[in-house]
Amino acid sequence: MPAVFLALALLLLVTMTAGLLRIVIGPSPADRMMAAQLLGTSGIGVLVLLASALEMPALIDVGLIFALLAAVSVTAFTRRRIDQD
Questions:
Q1: Fewest beta carbons within 10 Å, which of 31, 34, 63, 79?
Q2: Over the stretch 56-84, which tens digit does the pLDDT of each residue have?
Q3: Contacts for 62-67 with beta carbons within 8 Å, 24 or more apart?
Q4: Residue 40 CA to chain centroid, in angstroms?
Protein backbone atom coordinates (compact mmCIF):
# COMPACT_ATOMS: atom_id res chain seq x y z
CA MET A 1 0.00 0.00 0.00
CA PRO A 2 2.79 2.53 0.67
CA ALA A 3 3.90 2.12 -2.96
CA VAL A 4 0.46 3.24 -4.13
CA PHE A 5 0.62 6.29 -1.85
CA LEU A 6 4.07 7.17 -3.19
CA ALA A 7 2.87 6.79 -6.78
CA LEU A 8 -0.09 9.08 -6.10
CA ALA A 9 2.21 11.62 -4.44
CA LEU A 10 4.37 11.56 -7.57
CA LEU A 11 1.29 12.15 -9.73
CA LEU A 12 0.37 15.15 -7.59
CA LEU A 13 3.90 16.49 -7.98
CA VAL A 14 3.45 16.31 -11.76
CA THR A 15 0.26 18.36 -11.49
CA MET A 16 2.16 20.85 -9.35
CA THR A 17 4.66 21.38 -12.18
CA ALA A 18 1.74 22.15 -14.49
CA GLY A 19 0.54 24.68 -11.91
CA LEU A 20 3.99 26.27 -11.81
CA LEU A 21 3.86 26.72 -15.57
CA ARG A 22 0.46 28.41 -15.27
CA ILE A 23 1.83 30.78 -12.63
CA VAL A 24 4.68 31.77 -14.93
CA ILE A 25 2.67 32.17 -18.16
CA GLY A 26 -0.80 32.85 -16.75
CA PRO A 27 -2.50 35.56 -18.76
CA SER A 28 -4.35 37.10 -15.82
CA PRO A 29 -3.84 37.47 -12.08
CA ALA A 30 -6.89 35.30 -11.46
CA ASP A 31 -5.31 32.45 -13.43
CA ARG A 32 -2.15 32.83 -11.40
CA MET A 33 -4.08 32.74 -8.14
CA MET A 34 -5.97 29.62 -9.17
CA ALA A 35 -2.67 27.97 -10.04
CA ALA A 36 -1.32 28.96 -6.62
CA GLN A 37 -4.41 27.35 -5.07
CA LEU A 38 -3.66 24.21 -7.11
CA LEU A 39 -0.13 24.19 -5.69
CA GLY A 40 -1.43 24.56 -2.15
CA THR A 41 -4.05 21.86 -2.49
CA SER A 42 -1.68 19.47 -4.24
CA GLY A 43 1.01 20.14 -1.66
CA ILE A 44 -1.40 19.26 1.13
CA GLY A 45 -2.34 16.08 -0.71
CA VAL A 46 1.31 15.14 -1.14
CA LEU A 47 1.97 15.67 2.55
CA VAL A 48 -1.00 13.54 3.59
CA LEU A 49 0.00 10.75 1.22
CA LEU A 50 3.60 10.85 2.42
CA ALA A 51 2.41 10.79 6.03
CA SER A 52 0.56 7.57 5.31
CA ALA A 53 3.29 6.01 3.18
CA LEU A 54 6.19 6.86 5.48
CA GLU A 55 4.21 6.52 8.73
CA MET A 56 5.07 10.07 9.84
CA PRO A 57 1.94 11.59 11.41
CA ALA A 58 3.70 14.95 11.88
CA LEU A 59 3.33 15.55 8.14
CA ILE A 60 -0.44 15.68 8.58
CA ASP A 61 0.02 18.56 11.02
CA VAL A 62 2.16 20.38 8.46
CA GLY A 63 -0.55 19.80 5.85
CA LEU A 64 -3.17 21.29 8.16
CA ILE A 65 -1.03 24.39 8.66
CA PHE A 66 -0.65 24.73 4.89
CA ALA A 67 -4.44 24.45 4.52
CA LEU A 68 -4.92 27.33 6.95
CA LEU A 69 -2.34 29.43 5.13
CA ALA A 70 -4.01 28.72 1.78
CA ALA A 71 -7.35 29.97 3.10
CA VAL A 72 -5.74 33.16 4.37
CA SER A 73 -3.95 33.74 1.06
CA VAL A 74 -7.20 33.47 -0.91
CA THR A 75 -8.86 35.93 1.43
CA ALA A 76 -5.98 38.36 1.05
CA PHE A 77 -6.02 38.02 -2.74
CA THR A 78 -9.76 38.63 -3.06
CA ARG A 79 -9.57 41.61 -0.71
CA ARG A 80 -6.74 43.05 -2.77
CA ARG A 81 -8.69 42.55 -5.99
CA ILE A 82 -11.80 44.23 -4.52
CA ASP A 83 -9.77 47.20 -3.27
CA GLN A 84 -8.16 47.67 -6.70
CA ASP A 85 -11.48 47.75 -8.57
A1: 79
A2: 999 999 999 999 988 888 788 777 766 66
A3: 66/40, 67/40
A4: 2
- pLDDT value of position 8: 95
User: Considering Cα of 70, then 71, then 72, then 77, what sign does the dihedral take?
Assistant: positive
Q: In angstroms, rounded to a whole number, what is the distance separating the alpha carbons of residues 26 and 39?
A: 14
What is the gyration radius of the CA atoms in the chain, in angstroms?
A: 15
How far apart, in Å, do the first and last CA atoms of the chain sit? Answer: 50
Give the C-alpha separation, 61 to 42, whole Å: 15
Smallest CA-to-CA distance from 26 within 39, 13, 45 is with: 39
